[in-house]
Every structure is written in C-alpha cells, then in structure tokens.
Amino acid sequence: MREEQQPDREGRLPGEVVETYRQPLPGEVVERYTRPLPGRGARPALSRPRRRTGVWIFAVCLTVVLGIAAGTGIWALLVRPAAPGDADGVEEMAAREEGVSIPAYPYGEGAALEIAEDRGQALTAPEIYQRVNPAVVAVMAQAGEQASVGSGVIFRSDGYILTNYHILQGGEDCVAVLSTGWTYEARYVAGDAAHDLAVLKIDVTGLPTAEFGDSDRLSVGEEVYAIGNPMGMELRGTMTDGIVSALDRDVTVDGRVMSLIQTDAPLNTGNSGGPLIDRYGQVVGIVTLKIRPSYFSAEGLGFAIPSAAIGRLANDLLTYGEVRPEPAFGVTVLTPASWVEEGVRGLQVLEVEPGSAADRAGIREGDFVLAAGGTEVSSSQELLKIRRQLYVGDRITMTLWRDGERLEVTLELTEAAE
Question: Is 166 noted as a catalytic residue in this protein?
Fold first, then answer.
C-alpha cells in the first residue's frame, strides 16, 4: 500500500504546484511564472515510437514522484513579488528567462496552419470528443532532472503540433505522447514567449488532425469544450465543457496585455497547450492560463488564445521562425457601427494616436470608418480581422465619412506600440 503524503500547514502536498492569483494593486505588475518540477533518478531516454508499455515507463518516472501535480501545464500568476533574498523567487525568475534548447527542426519548409471558413453541422459532445481527441497529445519537456507536462494539438498529418511556449521553456528534450499511447521524440520548430505559442514536429505521417475554426465567429454564452491532460499523464484525454464567458478579454501577463477568450470550462494543471473547441468540433483557442484568486472564492476563470490570432502567429513561426511585428492603425473606434445616412454605417473614430499611421494619413476624431482595404466594416472585430492579415510596412486604403462626404486615405502601417 502506498503511504499517503500529509499536507503541510498551508494545505499543500510535498512537491505540489499551487497556482494563485491576486488582483494587482494600482500600478503594480503581476507576473506569471511556472515552478520547475523536482525529478528523481536517471533521466528517461528518448526513443523512437514504442507501444503503450514504453510510454508508461516514461510516465511513471514522472508521475509517481511528482504526485498529483505532475505538470506545469497551466501557468500561474505570482501571489506577490519575491522579497529581497527570497531564493525561490530568484530561481523562478531565472527559469522564466531561460530559452528552449530542444533539438531543432527547420522552419520555412512550406507547412502552414489553416483556418476553416465553414463551420459545418453542430455536433454532440461525444461526437466532438471522437473527432478531436485523437489529435490531442501530451507534451513532456525535460531539463536535467526537472520536467513539465502539458498538452498540444496536431494540426498537420505529417506531425506538426501546436502547444504553449511556457511548457517548453528551459527544456532540453521533449516527447509527444499520442492518444494511442505511442510516444515520439518532438523537435522544436519555433516559438514565441510573448504570445505563449510554440510549434513542435514529430517524425511520423498519417496522423489524425484537428480542424481550426474562426474564433471571431464565437458568441458569449456559446458552448465550448476543452480536451487535455489535467494533473499530468494519469488523467490524459480528459474532456470538460462550459461556455464562452467573454471575448477579447485583456489580461496582463508578464507585463504584456494578451487579448484572450474567457471560459468557465474547468481547466487544470496540464491543460495548457490543449484545444478549446466549439460546438462544431473546431479548435477556436489554445488554453494558456487559469486564474485562481487567493483572497476570495471564485471558479471558472480560464483563458485561451483565440484561433483568429493563432492563424497569423503560427504561420509566422512556421515560415520565419519568429513572430513578425504586429502593425497598428492607430485609431480607437466606437463599436458597433453607427448609421451616418440611409444605407451607410461606419465606425466612429474616438481617438487618433499621435504619430500613428492613422494620424499621418489625416484621420481625425469624429470621422467614421466605412471600409478598410475595400471591405466594409461594422464592428471593431471586423477591423481587427483585416489588420491581422497585414504586416509592418504594408499600405491599406480606408474609406471615411466626414461632414457628409466620403473620402479615401492611405495608411502606411508601423509597428504597434508596446
């Protein structure tokens, strides 16, 4: 019989990763971190694909020692800044700043992540699981005697996997475990810490894939599902459900604002990098963060990177090995659109950033944006969708309504301000 581990006075089990969140005070920066997991014994050797028995040899090396908190899948937010001389705080900061030294696979090989235009028919929960689960993998990254476990999504049948960067950060070796139990060495294509996305490649073809849909078509209250590996390998392939709680929710992580999908679908350590799925069986987000308040009771605060942003980010990583700078129009608009005359609607410009592309093009506060790049716009989301297709240095024409007249201006896009 296995001896039960006793919690300490704070209720934590030995080696357990505890995630907490505290609302930031005015002017305070709340940082996110992941604690390296303690390891034991010899480092597991990576191998070519092997059957389920081999996978569990690898898994037992991790899960028995790490207990129920077998992964750093969901990133945490610091409870408080590390006090001077706090060794743990120094260690965690250093771990966050480490890069990835996992063996590389070349980018620029012509691979791409596609976003489906059609949604198809709505599916039942069992149908969604049967469709998507075969494309969900467990991602295990190891650095010395430390390891982290998360999830990933196969998006090409020749072995390309999308996951979170923070799962791989500091890693030296990585494996991906398929839903069948087969395990493969995973090589690192590219990643971006600021957007918490990374691409891996395994040497196998004919894999099941997940279809990515357009998160811009989601509505608050719509059903969504998550599939991943909560608490590590022992519960891999777990599906949970909930709704879209909010769209375009700005969350400050490591000093950078990320615009995320908020959901109340239950998410736990190990779900990071896994898919958030709509009722059509399409991946509309990649799970990245869960908030656990420390001073009041709250549940169901999970967040995912929207697929509308992922399409651009992942394809930059696949093509260039990095995320190219995001451009900015330099306008703040009121949404939804307002009627400016019969049959004509536009987005009212509330603010123009000085020195921005919009400012240089002559756009003024009070103007109405009717179209961008020849496409009519009726919401800020539609304007954002157009911007996501553009890069720094591109030029785009906007059609405006000013004082009862139409006019066209051309914006030369510059990099978005941090």
Answer: yes
